[in-house]
Amino acid sequence: MARRRGAALGAVTMAAALAVAGCGGGTTPVGNGADGTTGGGSGAGGGTVRVAISSGISTYDPALACTTQYEYAVVKNTYDTLVQYSAQPGADGKREIVADLAKSWTVGDDGLTYTFKLRDDVKFASGNPMTSADVVYGLQRVLDKEGCQAYVLTLGDEAGVKSIKAVDDHTVRITLAKENPIFLGQLTQTGLSPVDRKELAKHGGLGKQGDAWLARHTAGTGAYTITQDDPDAQIDLTARKDYWQGTPKNDKVSIKVVTDPTTLETLVRANELDMAYGVPAKDTKSIAEGRTLVNDIGPFFIYLGMNNGVKPFDDVRVRQAVALALDRNALVEQLGYGQVEAFDGPMPPAMPYSPKSKPPAADVAKAKQLVSEAGAQGASFTVDIKSGEAFQQEVATILQASLKEIGISVKIHTLGASAFIDRVGGFKSQAYLIRDGSPFNDPAYFLGFFVKCDNAFNWTKYCNKRVDELLAQGRVETDEAKRTAQYKELSDIVTRERPMIPIFALGANLIASKTLKGYTTYDDQQPVFWPISTR
Asked: CA 276, 280, 285, 287 torsion: positive or negative?
């Protein structure tokens, strides 16, 4: 007999229950209605929501978006997923996995077969009806393109998804090669979405021409279409009146890319923005006066990645020296203004199973000794950062001064969003500073990106076979004590070998106007626009 999963998750295994507890997101609603809800409805639109982000967007392709901070903001609002986390947590503080494009689902007794019954009233932005063939098309395309969302779907196990099939027009069956207790949680993730196969076929289909078109357009079931595309300046999203969840509460979302902090402050103070991301921490409290500050610290952080395959970082002693020379505890005090949290190791403190370790005290003498032992006196490297990222710029400047004390020279290289991703994702960087993290707050998902050998998104090129063994064990382990021990050992190894150095964990740092209604914080720190209004 199949295990029934209806509109909510219901009974789950221990590991899946833990995933639900950690993955639903924050609990900070802004401007709720009198009934406490934040949802949209069938009423008229609520004007234009004016948003500012601090860096550009390189792609809108659901199979590939995830490499810059705000890409999800567009994809999340132009595509939908089979299942999703509930908008609000229950009395126990946990969010449930609930129906989205799938109205119900079952899981076979063997835990390998997931059968989804689709809604029959969903249309793409083109007007084409969504069918199971579009779900198969979208998910199979994710696998074939081998982008970051392929990892999201498979957790790096290429043989993990055995098949994705359309049973009939409104039934999809996914068969796994081995049981995966967090698979439903994976399917909630932005980008694992149906794609309008008929519309994409008009623009090049699955070839390079189709990929280029989908990078700048949308073929989803989401609440918005893209009506202006200038990814380094302004993106406009226009609400769909025929959206299957109801008419959005706004008519349009206008997203401006504002890389200059002074310009951003001016726009906020002039009340020309409803939502402002990326305001420097030192200015946040003063700019937020008379407005709402949302800064729940989730599983996101700034870190220094070091390419372990190139000099000087091919020597672990140099990486350890950098970690000791950079006073991260002082950085929190100097740059954080009470809005960030220091930690050490590969897992941020908001993540389940994180050891919540604190950075060691700076030790310049020991750092110099390690540099000498490595024969790296006089070494130099370039650190890449994205334009518009105030935290990273400040950290890079302090890093430069700190490493000068131990005889290492640092050059700071600032790039636009697309150029940054091309350089870092192409393993061309010696080192980079980035704000990154886990929209799916579970280490089984998250750590593969950072520390799994030969993963295309392990940009530090770190590899340790014991770490890979622990990753594989933790992914399927359902005993909480054993899973805790596995991730503790993994964290200890990675912390000792230093492929990356976490600077601090941070929240979305969103300043919202007092007139904004319907905003809710999720773990991925990306907004769901359709329930939001400014009236």
From this structure: negative
What pLDDT is attached to residue 298?
80
Sheet with 340-341, edge to edge strand ranges: 340-341, 500-507, 297-306, 431-437, 380-386, 409-415
Tell me the three-class secondary structure of 388-437, residue by residue: CCHHHHHHHHHHHHHHHCCCCEEEEEEECHHHHHHHHHCCCCCEEEEEEE
Single out the residue of 59, 63, 73 nearest to residue 215, CA to CA.
59
Q: How many residues does the chain have?
A: 535
Single-letter amino acid, residue 181: P
Name the CATH superfamily, with its identifier, for domain 297-507: Dipeptide-binding Protein; Domain 3 (3.10.105.10)
The CA distance from 455 to 475, in Å, is: 16
Q: For 30, which DSSP code?
A: E
The Cα-based distances of 222 to 75, 273, 366 in angstroms read 8, 24, 54
Q: What is the pTM of this model?
A: 0.80
Tokens of 134: 């579009």
Q: What's the one-letter identity of residue 54?
A: S
Place of tokens 């409104």: 170
The pLDDT tens digits for 245-284 are: 999 999 999 999 998 989 999 999 999 999 999 888 888 8
Question: Which residues 6+ apart lie within 8 Å of 125 measured at CB?
Answer: 78, 196, 199, 218, 219, 220, 221, 222, 225, 240
Measured at the CA of 51, the angle between CA 46 and CA 57, to 5 degrees, comes to: 130
Long-range contacts of 205-210 (CB under 8 A, 24+ apart): 206/141, 206/144
What are φ and ψ of residue 175, in 5° steps?
A: -115, 130
CATH code that applies to domain 3-31+43-256+509-520: 3.40.190.10
Per-residue pLDDT at 42 exceeds 50: no
Which H or E run includes 171?
A: strand 171-176
Give the phi and the psi of residue 484 in degrees, each rounded to 5.
Answer: -60, -45
Any residues with CB less than 8 A from the CB of 437 and at least 6 apart, and which? Answer: 298, 299, 300, 301, 348, 446, 525
DSSP state at residue 96: P
Burial of 237-271, coded b for 16+ CB within 10 Å and e otherwise, reads bbbbeebbbbbbbbbbbbbbbbbebeebbebbeee
Q: How many CB atoms lie within 10 A of CB 316?
A: 15
pLDDT tens digits, residue range 379-388? 999 999 998 8
| DSSP per-residue letters across 487-499 | HHHHHHHHHHH-S
Residue spans per domain, the chain: 3-31+43-256+509-520, 297-507
What is the pLDDT of the chain when averaged over all its residues? 88
Pairing of strands 297-306, 3-5: unpaired
